[in-house]
Specification:
mainly alpha, four-stranded antiparallel sheet
């Protein structure tokens, strides 16, 4: 990858996003700097795409996403430095800005809320997933390691992002709303306390102000963590209006967690868990009855979901599936097969092109997509660039999805969507996933080769 001037790249991005005064908050995921802007019309997306080091620009879910790939972290750090931002901080609104803003639909608002809530969590999920994969692989070379306290302790570390996922999601949601993060995090964490889990397991009847609290646990649950910050935000806002200034510091926080906490155990938590269970049941039915259709359709749609930045919202549902029904037969297989198909399409382009230098680049992109699971360089550097390979990606992913699903591929551990993680993620059905991956790569390469490219 060509070297870039990190400082110049960061300065140009801030400038063409609309300047510091147009930025509400900034965060990042694996490959993108994500800006919540006050007015999208002030951002020059074409100019952003022309910056050296920027691979693409997407506006989705209320976020302006600047795709930087391997350049992300150094450029992102420089953006924080030059803009004097803290990671994920809400920047004060410019109350003098009366420029008309585009009205968002309810679907866009919900998607933006979920994306913003989940985005800070994603690096932790990836880190924890990869550590779990490493810990599962070590005993094959060193069998005695499995029974060591080191393995047990590191396992706790690896499991923490998944067990405490609701707390981290609550943080991102509160950030998005502009609420005090600790109130939402505190109430959400109370749903995970050992005392509550013991009470549930023992069948102890618990009520709050006479209202019964449903005896369910909330580890790995997404929806309660999305709903609690909304109530905490409005309760805090109301208390700030009615509590006198001299005692705000004493009563606003305690009042917020009192009201929100009571509602969390009696209404919000049970309702969110119920909806989450319903969603898991949908995936269960799809995985058991028509997995080949579900995986094929999702895998074929993923290229466009990734370009729109929508794919991150699916990560918590993978965790919820594994926590609730013990496996994920739809989402993770689709992600793995999509990544393989992106690499397969790059291989098809490499076989078709007459440019030796571009062929070598395509082979590198293919390895990155298949082995490392990083697809955006393949998407923007090759497949989307020539358009026709995207049909190869969709076709290869769908065909691989049908094969893997019919063979019974099921992920039982959360990990990263690359070839190296297939065995520890799928364990007993890894052979089915490997066959599906091989089919996806071959089908994508063949379809792309037949369709050709316009060099």
């Amino acid at each position: 990858m060509a070297k870039i001037d990190v400082k110049e790249c960061a300065a140009d991005i801030i400038k063409h996003v609309g300047g510091q005064e147009n930025i509400n908050s900034v965060a990042h995921c694996m490959t993108r700097a994500r800006f919540v802007v006050k007015n999208i019309d002030k951002a020059d997306q074409e100019a952003l795409r022309g910056i050296k080091g920027v691979m693409g620009v997407v506006y989705s879910g209320g976020q302006l996403q600047v795709i930087l790939g391997a350049n992300l972290l150094p450029v992102y750090d420089e953006i924080l430095k030059q803009g004097n931002f803290s990671q994920g901080d809400i920047i004060d609104e410019n109350l003098d800005d009366d420029t008309p803003k585009k009205k968002q639909g309810i679907g866009s608002i919900i998607l933006g809320y979920v994306q913003a809530s989940v985005t800070p969590l994603v690096p932790g999920l990836v880190a924890g997933g990869i550590l779990k994969v490493i810990l599962m692989l070590i005993p094959y070379a060193w069998p005695a390691f499995a029974s060591t306290t080191t393995n047990a302790l590191l396992g706790w570390v690896a499991n923490a992002p998944f067990y405490f996922m609701p707390v981290f999601v609550a943080y991102g949601a509160a950030k998005k709303l502009g609420a005090t993060e600790i109130y939402a995090m505190l109430v959400t964490a109370s749903l995970l306390t050992p005392a509550w889990i013991d009470a549930v397991s023992e069948g102890t009847a618990i009520s709050v102000f006479g209202i019964p609290a449903r005896g369910v646990t909330y580890s790995g649950q997404l929806l309660p963590a999305l709903l609690i910050p909304i109530l905490a935000f409005y309760v805090e806002k109301a208390l700030n209006k009615i509590v006198p200034g001299i005692i705000k510091s004493l009563l606003v926080g305690s009042g917020t967690i009192l009201v929100t906490g009571a509602a969390a155990f009696t209404i919000i938590g049970p309702a969110g868990r119920y909806l989450g269970d319903m969603i898991s049941q949908v995936f269960l039915v799809l995985g058991d009855k028509v997995p080949f259709i579900a995986v094929a359709v999702l895998a074929a749609c993923l290229p466009w979901m990734i370009m729109a930045g929508m794919h991150t919202a699916l990560s918590p549902f993978m965790i919820s599936n594994i926590e609730t029904i013990g496996y994920d037969a739809v989402i993770r297989p689709a992600f793995v097969l999509h990544n393989a198909a992106q690499g397969g399409a790059c291989l098809g382009v490499a076989l078709k092109t007459k440019d030796k230098e571009f062929r070598a680049e395509c082979l590198s992109l293919a390895v990155g997509a298949i082995v490392a699971g990083v697809t955006e360089p393949a998407i923007y550097g090759c497949n989307l660039k020539y358009r026709k390979p995207m049909f190869g990606v969709m076709g290869g992913a769908a065909i691989g999805g049908v094969v893997a699903s019919l063979l019974g591929a099921r992920a039982v551990v959360f990990g990263y969507s690359n070839l190296l993680a297939v065995f520890p993620m799928f364990i007993e059905t890894a052979w089915a996933m490997f066959i599906g991956v091989a089919v996806a790569i071959a089908a994508a390469a063949i379809i792309t080769f037949i369709l050709g490219i316009d060099e």
